[in-house]
Design goal:
The protein is of the alpha+beta class. It is built from 6 helices and 6 strands. The N and C termini lie far apart (31 Å).
């Protein structure tokens, strides 16, 4: 969720370009509301039950075997947080869609440690504004 707060920092710049920032999470709404009660966001956080939308985009992956044990060791219980037994997560991605619904830029990496910088997303939007 740290990434959401990094996007929060550039949300005003995104809005100034006439764009709207929306984040999508597999977390159940109660978990998201709990997080947002501690630190609100100025943009919408939508719920994707079962990572179904992520799957339609080809951005859902299964957390398997040893990695599940590691998550559990850190107190991360995806079935509880996400409200389904699937042990799936979305691939971290940023997708820039124009007003006509056409994807103009996408940054996605299955390695969750390599996420696009918010400045990259802002640069993608600025390129559309030209």
């Amino acid at each position: 969720m740290v990434e959401l707060y990094a996007l929060q920092e550039i949300n005003r710049d995104i809005e100034d370009l006439g764009a709207t920032l929306v984040a999508i999470t597999p977390q159940i709404p109660a978990k998201s509301l709990e997080m947002l009660s501690r630190q609100p966001l100025d943009f919408n956080l939508l719920s994707d039950p079962g990572n179904e939308y992520a799957a339609t985009l080809g951005l859902r992956h299964e957390v398997r075997g040893e990695l599940q044990a590691i998550y559990k060791g850190f107190g991360i219980d995806l079935p509880t947080s996400n409200g389904d037994p699937s042990w799936t997560l979305p691939v971290p991605a940023r997708i820039v869609v124009d007003s006509g619904g056409i994807v103009r830029a996408i940054d996605a990496d299955p390695d969750y440690t390599r996420r696009p910088e918010p400045s990259k997303t802002l640069a993608d939007l600025q390129a559309l504004a030209k």
